[in-house]
Amino acid sequence: MNKIRVRLADWQKDNADIRRIREAVFIAEQNVPPELEWDADDNTAVHFLAMEGDYAIGTARLLPDGHIGRVSVLKDWRGLKVGDALMQAVIVEAQNRDLKQQMLSAQVHATPFYERLGFKVVSEEFLEAGIPHVDMVRESRELA
Known about the structure:
GO terms for molecular function: acyltransferase activity, transferring groups other than amino-acyl groups. This protein is an alpha+beta fold. The chain contains five helices and eight strands.
């Protein structure tokens, strides 16, 4: 396996890769209706791609208000720290944009992953696209 790297993505230029990953993970695997997966926020979000060589294997997005979403890694690359690399890149970008707080809605099964990254559960469980979720928040550490 090559070293995984994460880069900023361009919604227009990298659209095919972003769509391929999110369609495989959310629409095909998790049965999220396509009309819920694609939204107007994609146009204003900062997008990220995790790459192995020239092949995109994961994606995430950061909204201007600090919401992180659509974190997804293709099945064959899960368990290889791709999600960690993606989230670290998103958190660094959020901090570079002076977003003091990062927020996300996590699938309940993924809460331990996000807790390792400093997120805390701040809501009761709720259904989103038929999948149990909780809201989570991470406060940026002030640099001394």
